What we know:
By secondary structure, the chain is mainly alpha-helical. It has helices at about 5-30, 35-50, 55-60; strands at about 65, 70.
Amino acid sequence: xxxxARKAVGGVAILAFLALYIWAAVSLGALVPTQWxxxxxxxxxxxxxxGLPLIxxxxxxxxxxxxxxKE
Length: 71
């Protein structure tokens, strides 16, 4: 697949993932106790952890395989 197509597919996938992630984070956030420190910790963690599952997709979008970037 050409680089331009990979980036287009990856961009749509990122937007879809973020929509589902935000929905899940807010839904689970409703179950978190109402203490401010607990909510702060939950939303701080949820706000940082969204990027971890996207790392392999971003690498694929940039054309990097297991052996490193393509030349």
